[in-house]
Design goal:
The protein is α+β, with helices and mostly antiparallel strands. The strands form 5 sheets. Strands 2-1-6-5-4-3 form a 6-stranded antiparallel β-sheet. The C terminus is likely disordered.
Length: 607
C-alpha cells in the first residue's frame, strides 16, 4: 500500500502545482530553474522548456530601465544565501517579448532532510492594480491565503497516506477542512450496495461540537429517485453547489431530510457536496458549508474539494481491496488449519495469529496427521512472502508434504528431500522453511522425537521441572533451494527422547523476531517464558505465552505436544474418549491407539 499511496501523493501535488493561479518557479541551490508551472510560463510569456536550466536572476530580473540587476542585489535569490523566506512588491521581470512586468512575490528556501535543495518563488502580476496601498493589501492577503491552502494540501496528503484506517482518515480529513474550507463538514458513507443503507460517520464544526456529534449515526437508505441536489452527488459522482435557493427547497426523501438537518442544526448559507468516489464506485459524500452568505465557494475551491474527495475515494478503495485480500488469505489459511489428532495420552494444541497489517498475510502453517504406519507427525513451516500468493503457495507446499509422507515409513530426511525436489520441478512456490517430525514409541511410552529442520527456528523442549532447551540438531537448507541450485546438501535426521510430562513446542519466526527485536533476543525470551509455564495445561501454556510475548508485525503459528506421565497408555482409565481407531505397526503408534480430532483455536485480533 505504501507505494500506491506515494504515487497518489505525487499525482495530487502535481495537480496542485499545475492548477495554481499563481506563478511558481523552483530553482536549484545555484539559482538555476528546475521547475515552472503553466501560470508562471504565461505571466513571463516564455515557454517552459526555454526557461528550465537557465539562471533565474540572469533570465528575468531587471531594473525599471531594463538593465540587469547586480546579482548581489537580487532579493529573489537572497534566500539561497541566508536561508530565510522573503517577499516583496517592487521587482520587475523580463517577459519573452521584451516588456517588463511588475510582480508581487514570495521566495522560500527549499530544504529536504536538512539539506538546501534550492528555493521556491511564488509570484503574481502586480500591474493589474492601480492603487499601491490596495495592491499591497490584496496581494499580501493572497499570499497568506496561498500559503494556508498549500499547507492544508500538504496536511491532507499526509492524512490520506498515514491514517491507519478509513474512519480515522475521514475524521482527520474533516478536521483539516474546518475552518479553512468551511464552518462545518460532514461525511456520509454508503454501508450497503444492495440496500442503499447510509451512515454519517463524522461531523466536524467550528461551533458546538456536541451538537455536531449528535448528528452522526445511521441514515435513511439512498432513494431510488430524488430531486434533491445534495443526493444527486451520490448518483452522478459530480460536485453539487448548494446556494440559498437550493437550501430552501423542501426535502423529497428521508435521506434528503437527514441532510437538511445538518443545516437546521448547524446553520449554513452555502455549501458544496462532493462525492467520495473512484471510477468504479461512489463510497459516499463530503459536505462542506459556510455560514456567511457572502462567502460563496469559488471554482478553485470547488476544484480543490472535489480533488481531495476523489483522492480520499482512492484511499478508501485501496483499503477495501486490501481488506478483501486479507479476508481471502485468512480464510484460506484457516481452512488449512485442520483439527489436531490425539493419540494415546499425547495431547496437542495449536494457535494461529494473523498479522495486524493487511500487507502481512503470509505463508505460516502448522499441521499434524497420522502416517500409514500409525505414527503421529508434527509440522511447522513458513513459505517466503507476505501476500495472498504466499498463502496460496503455503497451501500447495502443505498438501505436497501430506501426499509425500502419509504412506511412507522412511526417515523424515527422505520425505523432505522429495518435497524439495517436488517444489523445484513441479511447483512455482518459492523457498520455504519447515520442521517435519515423527513422534514414535510403544503404547504407554517411552516416546522419541525424530525430525529434520529445513532452515526453520529450532523446536523447544521443556521438561516437567522447567528446564528448556532448543533442539538445534537436524538443520539443513531451506526447501526449494537445494535442488534448484544443485547444492548437493542434505537434511540430517535427528533424534531426541521426550521425557514424561515434557512439552514440545514448534513455532514460526513471528513469535521470536520482529522489526524491533533480533531473533536471538526473541529466542531467549521464548525460552524463559516457556520454562516458567512448564506446569501449565497446554491450552493455558499457549495463551499465556502469547500474552507474555505479545508478538506483532508478522503471522504467528504455534503447535504444542504434551507427553503423558510414565506408564500411561491407551488402555489406561484416564485415556480420552475413543472416536476412531487406527491400525498401527508394533513399536509405533500402538494397535488400538485412541485417536480423536481436537479443534484448533486461533487468536486473531480484530482488524
Amino acid at each position: 500500500m505504501r507505494s500506491e499511496d506515494g504515487l497518489l501523493e505525487i499525482g495530487f501535488m502535481r495537480t496542485v502545482f499545475d492548477s495554481l493561479g499563481a506563478g511558481v518557479l523552483v530553482t536549484d541551490p545555484t539559482g538555476r530553474l528546475t521547475a515552472c508551472n503553466p501560470r508562471a510560463a504565461q505571466l513571463l510569456g516564455r515557454p517552459r522548456d526555454q526557461m528550465l536550466g537557465h539562471d533565474l536572476h540572469d533570465l528575468i530580473h531587471r531594473r525599471r530601465d531594463g538593465s540587469t540587476v547586480p546579482r548581489s542585489e537580487c532579493s529573489l535569490l537572497a534566500v539561497l544565501d541566508n536561508d530565510r523566506p522573503a517577499e516583496g512588491t517592487d521587482e520587475l521581470c523580463l517577459r519573452g517579448d521584451g516588456t517588463l512586468v511588475p510582480v508581487i512575490w514570495a521566495a522560500t528556501p527549499l530544504r529536504h532532510e536538512g539539506r538546501s535543495e534550492g528555493a521556491v518563488v511564488v509570484f503574481h502580476d502586480f500591474s493589474l492594480h492601480r492603487d499601491a496601498a490596495e495592491q499591497t493589501a490584496a496581494y499580501l492577503a493572497a499570499l497568506e491565503g496561498l500559503t494556508a491552502r498549500l499547507t492544508m494540501v500538504a496536511e491532507v496528503s499526509t492524512v490520506l497516506i498515514s491514517a491507519s484506517d478509513t474512519p480515522e482518515m475521514l475524521r482527520r480529513l474533516a478536521g483539516l477542512l474546518v475552518p479553512d474550507m468551511g464552518d462545518w463538514a460532514a461525511v456520509d458513507l454508503r454501508t450497503s450496495e444492495q440496500t442503499g443503507e447510509m451512515r454519517r460517520v463524522v461531523v466536524r464544526t467550528s461551533g458546538d461540537q456536541h451538537t455536531a456529534d449528535e448528528l452522526a449515526g445511521p441514515l435513511p437508505p439512498l432513494p431510488e429517485s430524488t430531486r434533491s441536489a445534495a443526493i444527486q452527488a451520490l448518483r452522478s459522482a459530480e460536485p453539487v453547489v448548494l446556494d440559498a435557493d437550493t437550501l430552501a427547497e423542501q426535502p423529497d426523501s428521508a435521506l434528503a431530510s437527514a441532510h437538511r438537518d445538518l443545516f437546521d442544526r448547524l446553520g449554513g448559507a452555502c455549501a458544496v457536496v462532493v462525492p467520495l468516489h473512484t471510477r468504479r464506485k461512489v463510497f459516499g459524500a463530503l459536505t462542506v458549508a459556510r455560514l456567511d452568505p457572502a462567502a460563496s465557494y469559488t471554482e478553485a475551491e470547488i476544484f480543490v474539494l472535489s480533488d481531495i474527495a476523489r483522492r480520499a475515494g482512492l484511499v478508501m478503495e485501496a483499503a477495501e481491496l486490501f481488506e478483501q485480500q486479507r479476508h481471502v488469505a485468512e480464510t484460506m489459511q484457516r481452512q488449512l488449519l485442520t483439527p489436531l489428532p490425539q493419540v494415546d495420552h499425547l495431547t496437542m494444541a495449536a494457535r494461529y495469529r494473523p498479522a495486524e497489517s493487511a500487507a502481512e498475510i503470509g505463508g505460516d502453517w502448522y499441521d499434524s496427521f497420522l502416517l500409514g504406519d500409525g505414527v503421529l507427525t508434527m509440522v511447522i513451516g513458513d513459505v517466503v512472502g507476505h501476500d495472498l500468493k504466499a498463502a496460496a503457495h503455503m497451501a500447495e507446499v502443505r498438501n505436497m508434504l501430506r501426499a509425500l509422507a502419509w504412506d511412507r515409513t522412511e526417515p523424515p530426511s527422505l520425505i523432505i528431500r522429495r518435497l524439495d525436489e517436488a517444489m523445484t520441478h513441479t511447483s512455482d512456490a518459492p523457498m520455504a522453511t519447515c520442521v517435519f517430525a515423527r513422534i514414535e514409541g510403544p503404547e504407554g511410552g517411552p516416546w522419541q522425537l525424530q525430525w529434520v529442520n529445513a532452515g526453520h527456528p529450532p523446536p523447544l523442549l521443556v521438561t516437567a521441572d522447567g528446564r528448556a532447551r532448543f533442539l538445534e540438531a537436524g538443520h539443513g537448507p531451506l526447501l526449494g533451494l537445494n535442488s534448484a541450485l544443485h547444492l548437493g546438501l542434505g537434511w540430517p535426521d535427528a533424534r531426541a527422547d521426550l521425557p514424561p510430562r515434557s512439552t514440545l513446542l514448534l513455532y514460526t519466526d513471528g513469535l521470536v523476531e520482529s522489526r524491533t527485536r533480533d531473533i536471538e533476543a526473541g529466542l531467549d525470551s521464548l525460552r524463559r517464558h516457556a520454562s516458567a509455564l512448564a506446569d501449565r495445561d497446554i491450552e493455558d501454556f499457549l495463551d499465556e505465552l502469547l500474552a507474555r510475548i505479545d508478538p506483532s508485525g508478522d503471522d504467528v503459528a504455534l503447535l504444542i505436544l504434551r507427553i503423558p506421565a510414565a506408564g500411561v497408555g491407551a488402555g489406561d482409565a484416564e485415556a480420552p474418549p475413543q472416536h476412531a481407531h487406527n491400525p498401527a505397526a508394533p513399536g509405533r503408534g500402538a494397535p488400538g491407539s485412541r485417536i480423536e480430532d481436537t479443534p484448533v483455536k486461533d487468536t486473531s485480533r480484530p482488524s
